Amino acid sequence: MKKLKLLSILMVIGMMFLISCTKEGEVGPAGADGIAGTNGTNGTNGVAISAADQAAYDAASALRGGLYYNKFYVDATTGANLATVDPIVTSNADFFRCKSCHGWDLLGSNGQYISRGPTATRPNIAPNNLNVYAATHDIKQIFDAVKHSGGRQKTSTDKSLNSNMPDYSLLMTDAQVWDIVKFLKEGRINYDKMYELKTTGTYPSSTSVTDMYGNTLTGYVLNNVGNVAGTTGDAVAGKAYYDAKCAVCHGTDGKDLASFPVGLLGRTKNAEMLHIVKYGLPGKSMWSTINYNITETEMINLNKALSDTLVFPN
What we know:
- By secondary structure, the protein is mainly alpha-helical.
- The chain is built from 13 helices and 2 strands.
- The chain has 2 domains: 28-187; 191-306, Cytochrome Bc1 Complex, Chain D, domain 2.
- A two-stranded antiparallel sheet has the order 1-2.
- It starts with a helix and ends in an 8-residue tail after the last helix.
- 42% of the residues are buried.
């Protein structure tokens, strides 16, 4: 009996030792070619999270993180490029923006960017599902993964533009990285409740582009495949929210800013529209807390209202 008890104690100690010394999960989001780079030491189930890490996370802002996920290299208030950012980054932004590889919906090549193949000005879409990664990894692991030390752009002279994830330790401050971590952990939108994603084919050869009603779209180039949106929600409540918060700039029918009618944006680039509603755009009038506190129910209702092509025409 004593031997069994001693053996049990030794096994528990051994397991604790293994947990404290091993890394859990992937090292960090890899590029489309599968190369992840070196990210330093990941936390393991929170064991490696220091008091300083927790304090930095607590002080971080999911609102800023949502803006940085879009454009980390600009001043959130003015929209101007930060003086500290390398011109290579600003002149080749799509090779460095988080959303360019992972999509507005964080689903990468399995989401709305399934048909967004690489070009001379943009990379492959990453295969990672950041929603799953953020939900299953602790804040230190996510911090290390976003910071991605050892990734592309390893030195000040290495400016290669490819689909490998950049070394953001050379491009962002730790405070910016913590903001993105907070966005991923607490601020990301659950798009599954907003629309049903329908895709045809596999990345990047998906060629079926349909609108939310299943109609094939012609004469309009999309970066994503169609969505079936507005299947749930209260259209009346959504229109009331729109009238109170959005109509002053976009007009009652969403067409005052002719560059992209709100209804068309909501029906064809749903995740992008909802991200912008919640987080705004750096340096634009929408960057404020006016919509950041929008609830999930309000977002579903707004989405439902925008599905009406008579109220919000193309």
